[in-house]
Write a structure and sequence with these properties.
Layout (H helix, E strand, L loop, with lengths): L2 H17 L6 H6 L5 H7 L3 H20 L6 H18 L4 H12 L4 H27 L8 H22 L3 H16 L10
Pfam families: TetR_C_6, TetR_N
GO molecular function: DNA binding
Keywords: DNA-binding, Repressor, Transcription, Transcription regulation
Length: 196
C-alpha cells in the first residue's frame, strides 16, 4: 500500500471516529491529513468510493491480524479472538465502534458496503470453522458441527458490537463469553483422546 493511500485511510479512520458516518465529509477527512479535499478527489471520486476503499483496507488489516500459520487449532482460535477483541478493547472511547455500526446500518441500502461486510463475515466464519475442523480431526475437540460453531461465534461477536455501542457494554464481557462457549462446546483437550 502506498504512503498516500495509508495516509488517506488513517485520516478516514480518524474522521470517522471524530464525526461518525452520518457527518463524515471529504473535507473532514482532508482536515485529518495534510492533503486538500481536491487531493482526496483526485484519488477517490466520491465519499462512497473512498469508504468502499476504507472497508477494503479494514478487511485487509483484519485478515493480516487473523493470519496464523500455526498447526495448533487452539492457537488459531486464540489468534482469532485476539484479532476480534484486542483492538476493540484498545479503543477505549468507542468512537470507531459507533462509526462501524453506522456503516453496518447502511449495508441494506448499499450493495458495495454489504458485499464487503459479507466478505468479512465469511472470512471470520471460515477461520473459526477451519480451526474447529482441525481440532476435531486431531482428536482435541468434541464432535461438533464446525460451521454451526463458527456461525454462533460470529453472531455473538456481531451482537457484542451492537451491545458495546448501544448499551455501553465492555467488549471484554463478550470476549469472556465467546471463550467460555468455545471451551465448553469444543471440550478442548490439550492431548487427543485415546480410545480405551
Amino acid at each position: 500500500m502506498s504512503e498516500t493511500t495509508e495516509d488517506i485511510m488513517s485520516a478516514t479512520y480518524r474522521a470517522l471516529c471524530a464525526h461518525g458516518f452520518a457527518d463524515l465529509t471529504m473535507q473532514r477527512i482532508a482536515d485529518e491529513t495534510d492533503r486538500s479535499k481536491a487531493s482526496l478527489h483526485y484519488h477517490y471520486d466520491t465519499k462512497e468510493e473512498l469508504l468502499r476503499a476504507f472497508l477494503d483496507y479494514l478487511l485487509d488489516d483484519f485478515e493480516s491480524r487473523l493470519a496464523c500459520e500455526a498447526a495448533d487449532p487452539d492457537e488459531r482460535l486464540d489468534t482469532f479472538v485476539e484479532a476480534v477483541f484486542g483492538p476493540a478493547e484498545a479503543d477505549d472511547d468507542g468512537d470507531f465502534a459507533v462509526a462501524l455500526l453506522e456503516i453496518k446500518a447502511r449495508a441494506p441500502f448499499s450493495e458495495p458496503f454489504r458485499d464487503r461486510l459479507v466478505a468479512l463475515d465469511a472470512r471470520m466464519r471460515e477461520t473459526v470453522a477451519a480451526a474447529v475442523r482441525d481440532g476435531i480431526e486431531a482428536g482435541r475437540y468434541a464432535e461438533v458441527d464446525p460451521d454451526d460453531v463458527a456461525r454462533f461465534v460470529v453472531t455473538a461477536i456481531n451482537g457484542s458490537h451492537v451491545r458495546e455501542v448501544a448499551l455501553d457494554e465492555s467488549p471484554a464481557e463478550a470476549r469472556r463469553l465467546v471463550e467460555a462457549y468455545l471451551d465448553r462446546t469444543l471440550d478442548r483437550r490439550s492431548e487427543p483422546e485415546v480410545p480405551v
